[in-house]
Amino acid sequence: MIPAYARPAHRRLRKKLADIQKWNESSSLNVVIEGDSSLGIITSGISFVHAQEAAPQAGFFKVGMSYPLPLDKIRKFAEGYDCCMVIEEGDPYLVDSLRAAGIMVEGKADMYRFNELNVGRIKRILAEDTSDEPVPPRGKPPQLCPGCPHRAVFETLKELDCIVTGDIGCYTLGVLPPFEAMDTCVCMGSSIGVGLGLRHVLPEKQARRVVSVIGDSTFVHSGITGVVEMVYNKPRQGHVLLILDNSTTAMTGLQEHPGTGRTLDYQPTTKLVFEDLAGAIGISRVFVIDPTKDKDGFRKLMEESLDSRELTVIITRRPCMLAVRKQRQYEERMGENNKK
Ligand code: SF4
Question: What is the CATH number of domain 22-126?
Answer without folding.
Answer: 3.40.50.920
